[in-house]
Amino acid sequence: MTSLYEEVRGDQPGEVPVRRVSIRVNGVNRTADIEPRLLLAHFIRQGLRLTGTHVGCDTTNCGACTVLLDGKPAKSCTVLAVQADGHDVMTVEGMATASELDPIQEGFKDEHGLQCGFCTPGMMLSAKALLEENPNPTEDEIRWALSGNLCRCTGYQNIVKAVLWAAEKMRAQAGK
Amino acid sequence: MYPSRFNYESPKTIEEAIALLTKGNGEAKILAGGMSLIPMMKLRFASPEMLVDINNIPNLNYHRVDADGTFHIGALCRHSDLEKSSILAQHQPTLAATAPLVADPIVRNRGTFVGSVCHADPQGDWASAMIALDGMIVAQGPKGRRTIAVRDFVTGPFQNVLASNEIAIEAIIPATTGTRFGGYLKLERRIGDFATAGVAVALELSGSSVIRAGIGLTGVGSSTVNATDAAQSLVGSPLTSEAIERAADLAAQAAQPRSDHRGSAAYKKQVVRTFVARILTEINSTKTKAA
Fold first, then answer.
1. Which of A115, A136, B65, B180 shows the smallest number of beta carbons within 10 Å?
2. Does B105 contact A75 at a Cβ distance shorter than 8 Å?
């Protein structure tokens, strides 16, 4: 697999700095030769064809490209893929199993936490990191944790409800 | 968007990193959190030939209080480490108030304190706090280490005194002789936006008397503003409402804001005045409660 940019293909061999990286994405080790300037977001989307990670503003503002890097939310448009070498990445594709949605995904569905859906993958991953750390967050804590993810449709109300819904379901599951 | 082409190095020691920077001969940049550098490279405001990624150098991600009372923050300490730190909350009220207001929660997971100070953005929150606290930066180069006061470290917007082969490895906040009080307030249009204006205040009190004061202003000048007259006006007397008002007025005078889409210059001065008064009044009531 190659995840070089298309526009470098015309270059003479040897001119382009290339590094081999191994990144564990959604539990699977992915090894590739990449240019250092390749962004993690492009590695995921163009290299691995995991297009659930969205590129929104491309300027570190909107959080649509949020992935979990070693369990912590990171804006993948502002991380070089080489920096993820040897690290663990989780994208929205890693949330559900073949048979079951993640409770957070269920919450977004049940509480209508999305309209256009563009910000949703990033929202859900930020929410996932929050609920790992704090299984019983208040509404304020949810709004604070999601403040790096912008949504231009919902007004956030149902997103917050969705995360509260998921938190409750996850607590109930953990209590069993 | 993506950056122009560069060579990437990920050294395992500070010495190795310095050697790479020397080899880079002014065309190499250090990559720590990357939360300012990578956007600048994507926008092609910066096109370094080499990136020296220091994230694989061990023992740089720390913050601690030493026995002598000095507070140390390592080059890879992230904003979020500080935000969640009980040591910071206990010892450094100004920094503890600043930490949750830096950028947004996702950026705070990667961005570093020392990197932010080095970036010397007039909009940087930490620089104001460091100015208020008389903080210092420890730089290491081929000839060894030197310590630079932050007020001398930043020479202008996005400019610092580091040589091209020096690395800022640590920030130090000096020990206090009195009791430390402080705060940080920032007005922003939404979380993650640059500040309309921000104010950092650091005080040391002995009894009810102020024995040391520092005030740093964010986003109201071509670099972080050190409101020395305002701070000096507080020293030697208790925090009376007259003293608070005088300091707030002097801080507003020290601010050199420009009118822009975030507000007029007069408005930003008023925000500075209000924030200084608000922080000092809050300190006064906390102090009274504690006593």
1. A136
2. no
Task: Assess whether B205 and B242 both reside in one domain.
Answer: yes
For residue B244, give its domain range: 179-290
Average pLDDT score, chain B: 96
Domains of chain A (ranges, CATH numbers): 6-94 (3.10.20.30), 103-175 (1.10.150.120)
- Whether the predicted pLDDT of A114 surpasses 80: yes
Q: How far is it, in rounded angstroms, from Cα B248 to Cα B258?
A: 19
pLDDT tens-digit profile of A52-90?
999 999 999 999 999 999 999 999 999 999 999 999 999
Please report, rounded to a whole number, the percentage of residues in chain B having pLDDT higher than 70: 99
**Chains A and B: how many Cβ contacts under 8 Å?**
86
What is the Cα–Cα distance from A55 to B287, expressed in whole angstroms? 48
Q: Which of A17, A38, A73 sits opposite B109 (nearest CB)?
A: A73
The shortest C-alpha distance from A109 to chain B (Å) reads 24
In whole angstroms, what is the distance from residue B214 CA to residue A174 CA?
Answer: 49
Nearest CA in chain A to B111: A74
- Tell me how many domains chain B contains: 3
Contact B2 A126 (CB under 8 A): no
Answer with the residue of higher pLDDT: A16 or A142: A142
As a whole number of angstroms, the distance between CA B136 and CA A16 comes to 40
